[in-house]
Amino acid sequence: QSQLVESGGGVVPPGGSLRLSCRTSERTLDYYSVGWFRQAPGKEREGVSCINSSGGMTYYADSVKGRFTISRDNAANTVYLQMDNLKPEDTGVYYCAGNPMIYSVQTQCVPALFHDWGRGTQVTVSS
């Protein structure tokens, strides 16, 4: 199993932007669906956005639609999450995870179906 590594978190004011990156140097992500998940203090981990192996299918939670964009660069072995117009409720630890057996990210973007979890990157939206 490959270990994924997240980066790009930080502290931004409401309305700000961040771009998160998820990469691995251990093996190719070409065949993996990859998801971004977040966990706020005292809450369960939730699916934010997922992308299939080709990049042709994506899923977004209702709370981030129109503000977040997931993309992937298979040549760079990296999946990105562009987060714009950030809100305080977006605060949490963001994790990426993969699974080569996910065929429908639109219905399967749930933490229990993913593995190869990274350690997470903290995103704090605060004025």
Please specify the SSE layout and strand pairing.
Elements: E1 5-7, E2 10-12, E3 18-23, E4 33-39, E5 46-51, E6 58-60, E7 68-73, E8 78-83, E9 92-99, H1 105-108, E10 121-125
Parallel strand pairs: 2-10
Antiparallel strand pairs: 1-3, 3-8, 4-5, 4-9, 5-6, 7-8, 9-10
Explain what you see.
This protein is mainly β and 127 residues long. The chain has one helix spanning 105-108; strands at 5-7, 10-12, 18-23, 33-39, 46-51, 58-60, 68-73, 78-83, 92-99, 121-125. It has a 6-stranded mixed β-sheet. Strands 1-3-8-7 form a 4-stranded antiparallel β-sheet, with no helix packed on it. Strand 4 and strand 5 (46-51) form a beta hairpin. It is globular.
Keywords:
127 residues, mainly beta, 4-stranded antiparallel sheet, 1 helix
Shape designation = globular
The helix tally amounts to 1
Share of residues in helices? under 10%
Query: Which class of secondary structure composition applies to the elements?
Result: mainly beta
Describe the largest sheet: 6 strands, mixed
Report the portion of residues in β strands. 35-45%
Unreliable stretches (pLDDT < 50, length at least 5) are none
Number of strands: 10
Question: Whole-number radius of gyration?
Answer: 13 Å
Main sheet: strand order? 2-10-9-4-5-6
Helix-strand sequence: EEEEEEEEEHE
| Mean pLDDT metric | 94
How far apart lie the N and C ends?
39 Å
Give me a quick take on this structure.
With 127 residues, this protein is mainly β.
